[in-house]
Amino acid sequence: MTTHLDGNALAGPLADFFTFDITTATGRCNGCGEVAEFARAMVYVSGAGMVVRCGICDSVLATLVDTGDRAWIGFSGVSSIEVHRTRD
Amino acid sequence: MSDLQAAPAAAAPVARVAPAPPPAPSSALRSMPRPGWHVGTVVDARRETPNATRLEIEVDGWPGNAAGQHLDVRLTAPDGYTATRSYSIASSGPGTVVTLAIDKLPDGEVSPYLVDEVRAGDVLEVHGPLGAFFVWEPASAAEPEREDAATSAGASRPAADPPRPVQLIAGGSGVVPLFAMANAHASAGDPTPFRLLYSVRTPDDLYFAEELAAISAAPAPLQFDLVYTRRAPEGWPTPPGRITREQLEAAVIPAAQHPLVYVCGGTAFVETVAAWLIELGHPSRSIRTERFGGT
C-alpha cells in the first residue's frame, strides 16, 4: 500500500529554493480548478522524489527531485501560485 | 551545512528592477521566522514513553517558532549518505531551545537513532522552523516585538474578529504540535475556548502527561478528552478501541460554534477523522490536517 503525506511535508524540501512558505501559498489546480493551500495537497514520497497531487481531484500538481547537488522542481499541474508576503 | 545556501551566491548577478515597496501592514500578514539550516546540540534526552524520547535541543541561531511548526533533522553518515525526517516541535516562542518528542518507528531509518542513541552533547543538523499552515498563535502574539512600531497603526486597524474556538484532535504522536498549541494557549492565558481530543494506545503511551494535566487546570479554557485504543486505565468508562464517529461527535466542539479544527496523526487516522468532521458539518476550510508517514 502506498501511503502518503500532505503538503506540510513540502516546507523543508522547498525552503532551500524558495523564500516563501509553500504550505500557505495557494495554487490553482489545472485539473479541477480548485484553489487551495499547498498544505492541503497530498504528497507521495519515493526514492526518486516527491509527487504533489490535488487534494480534490488527485491530478499531479507538482514534482520535486533533489539529488543534493541539483534539484528539478516542476509545477506542471498548477496554473498560478498566490504567495503571501511575510514581514520579518 | 550551508552548502545549499551558498551555491546560488556563485551565480552571476542579474539586473533587477527596483524592488516593490514593502506591503502595508495588515493583520492578514503573518510574521513568521525564516527557516534556515542550524546546528543543534542536544541538552537533554529522556524517555517520554516506552517507545518515545523527548529531546531538548539548543539550536544555534534559532529564530523562535510558532506553535505547530516543524523542523527537519538531517543525519549524515561517514560515507556522505544523508537521511532527513520532519518532526513537529512541542515548544514555541522566541527561545533557542526546542523540544521534540519522537516516536520510534519499527523500520525507521532516523527515529531509532534519535530515540535510542542520542545523548546530551550530541550535535544534529536541523532545518527550520518550517510551515506556517499548521500553526496556531495566541492573539497576544499576533504582533510580536512590534509594539513600538504598531502603536499608531494598531489604533486604526479594524477590530479583529472574535477568536473562533479551537478543536485539537491528536492520534498518537500527532499530539506533539497540538500540545505546542495548547501550551502556547495556556502560557498566554488566552481566552479562546480550546478542546483537545487525544487518541492514544495505552496510558503508558501518553505524551506530555504531566504537562497536559497542568494546562487542563490552568485558567485558559481547555477541555481535554482521551480515547484509549488498546488498553484503558482501571475503571475507564468506555472499553478500549479505535475512535468511533459517535465518540468524535461527542468530544469535539459542534460545527455550529464554527471551531477551527486541527487534526494531526498517521495518515489513516487523519483521513478517517477529517471525513467524519465533514459529515458532522464542519466546512473543509475550517479543518487543518497534518499527516505523518511510516519511515
Features of the shown structure:
heterodimer; A: 3-stranded antiparallel sheet; 8 strands; B: alpha/beta; Elongation Factor Tu (Ef-tu), domain 3; Rossmann fold; 2 domains; 6-stranded antiparallel sheet; 5-stranded parallel sheet; 11 strands; 28% strand; globular
How would you characterize this protein structure?
The complex is a heterodimer of chains A (88) and B (295). Chain A has one helix at residues 11-15, and strands at residues 5-6, 26-29, 35-37, 42-46, 49-53, 60-66, 71-74, 78-82. With 88 residues, chain A is mainly beta. Chain A has one domain (5-81). Chain A is globular and about 35 Å long. A six-stranded antiparallel beta sheet of chain B has the order 4-3-6-1-2-5. Chain B contains seven helices and eleven strands. Chain B folds into two domains: 33-130, Translation factors (Elongation Factor Tu (Ef-tu), domain 3, Beta Barrel), CATH 2.40.30; 162-292, Nucleotide-binding domain of ferredoxin-NADP reductase (FNR) module (Rossmann fold), CATH 3.40.50. Classes of the chains: A mainly beta (88), B alpha/beta (295). Chains A and B meet through strand 1 and helix 1 of A and strand 3, strand 4, strand 6 and strand 11 of B.
